[in-house]
Amino acid sequence: GDPEKGEMGLAAVPGRQDAFRRGLAAAVQYARAVGCPRIHLIAGRVPLGTDRAAVAGEMETTFIENLRYAADLLAQEEMIGLVEPINNRITDPRYFLNTPHQAAAILEKVGRPNLKLQLDLFHCQIMDGNLSRNLETYFPLIGHIQIAQVPGRHEPNSPGELNFPYLFELLESLGYTGYVGCEYAPKGDTLEGLGWLRSYWESRGLQHGRTSKAAE
């Protein structure tokens, strides 16, 4: 979309279908070039000057139409499309897709197996909490996980509400084998900000991400 006009994604924005499809075609080219099998299909914001409730139906219809188009295109590339709920309490008050419940209902209506849920635990905690049950409930739909501590959106071991060692073990027990994206703002530099990961590996008997003899 056009950031100068306040747009962030177009998939659910009425009247912007052509621009969404052009953007998707470009994204597929980039993804193909770098070998990335997943593309986030960003829903977008409720248009300025409109009431969310008044346009919700039209935005959902647009979203479903665009998601079906995207799913069919991505299927030809053997790629996965992702939709991510973003909280509208702190991060983006006008963002259309806000909860995993809303995302799951839309994905069910779309009915395409190569569309999945991109679940950012930061947004999920702010909107609904109940992370253990939500992970268990929506696990079959999850195509990617992102993390950040709440409320500061910093490293997982920074002060906050979430117990990440517990959540990581829950994901393992559920059989999650995908990537976990670090969608946070480091308090210092990047390497310093990854110290939590080294500590977590060591607590699990791992070293530099590889299974140790003891752990085996």
Automatic annotation (TrEMBL):
Gene Ontology annotations of biological process type: glyoxylate metabolic process
Record-given protein name: HYI isomerase
Highest taxon above the source species: Eukaryota
Keyword entries, A-Z: Isomerase
A single MF term (Gene Ontology): hydroxypyruvate isomerase activity
Gene behind the chain: Hyi
Occurrences of domain Xylose isomerase-like TIM barrel (ranges): 9-199
